[in-house]
Amino acid sequence: MHFPFDNWQLAVPRLANCRLEDCLMDYTRLEVLTDCICRKCSMRATLLRLEQDAERLTAEVGKPTVSQSKKKRVREVRRLAGRLKSALDEGRIEEEIKGVKIEKVISRASTKQAMVARPPPVLALHLNRSVHFGAYASKNMARVHFPEVLDLTPFTTSGMLSTSPSIPISSHPPTPIPTYMPPPPSIAAVAAPSTKTRPATQQAPPRVLYRLAAVVCHYGQHSFGHYVCFRRKPRGEGRVVPPWLDELAASSGKGWLRASDDAVREVGIETVLRENAGAFMLYYERVFKNEGGGGGGGASIRSSVGVGPDVRAERKDGWR
């Protein structure tokens, strides 16, 4: 199923250090469920029960003292069993069968996984640092190392979704290799020149890249503290258009603003990336690859503009 989201709440592991990618990997990993009710297994168990009831009642109907109500019950059980069998044969497992109480069978092999189907223009990541011990709560002070440029590709769907619960919901193809392999030098030296066009190298799948735009940090304990915001320094006038990623980085100590209440001062990206122990909210802006841009003759990456709503895909099913 698909549903929209505006942020990801990532659980911070109880470790001294971890990477942001580790938190994303844990959030999108294939999870085995032990309490999921399998609808098809439940219908099969119900059909078996009805068939056994029908056989037992049929044997009792043969007795001379059987009542009319019991004969009616036999016909009713057979009718319900027939309707249930028809639904199973036709694959209508989600259909409610009137008059039939479906058994609840727990699937022993069900999985659940969440991935991004439509990456949002701005990705908000909430690092959940709360640790609960019964009625007591504390703050997880683990250092979460986050990058300036985040590659979200491994955590997004590739356009092809799998319905098998034993494998991930979607996966990206491996790095492409050239479809043409040149002959060994000894053979190439004596081979006659060929006018046949050689197959081109397969294009690599597009990457889903994000660049850090702002960081909200919390200093203090779980029940009290102070928030400080870091944001990339605006450029130009009017609507802020972030620079190309392949431009020269700002000099040390510049390019970002640190806002603590009404105190604002300029800092550098190196200061922002050191805030791994207090990072609470991370905001990333999506960037795209623009062939031939940037003025340097090569490929450049530009921030996103006007991207549609974000969607998260989730699957929950079981082996049948």
TrEMBL record:
Residues 294-320 are annotated as: Disordered. Keywords: Hydrolase, Protease, Thiol protease, Ubl conjugation pathway. InterPro entries: Papain-like_cys_pep_sf, Peptidase_C19, Peptidase_C19_UCH, USP, USP_CS. The keyword Hydrolase applies. It comes from the Eukaryota. One of its GO terms (molecular function) is cysteine-type deubiquitinase activity. Its EC number is 3.4.19.12. One of its GO terms (biological process) is protein deubiquitination. Residues 1-287 form the USP domain. It catalyses: Thiol-dependent hydrolysis of ester, thioester, amide, peptide and isopeptide bonds formed by the C-terminal Gly of ubiquitin (a 76-residue protein attached to proteins as an intracellular targeting signal). GO terms for cellular component: cytosol; nucleus. Residues 311-320 have a biased composition (Basic and acidic residues). PANTHER family: UBIQUITIN CARBOXYL-TERMINAL HYDROLASE, UBIQUITIN CARBOXYL-TERMINAL HYDROLASE 30. Belongs to the peptidase C19 family. This is ubiquitinyl hydrolase 1. It comes from Multifurca ochricompacta.
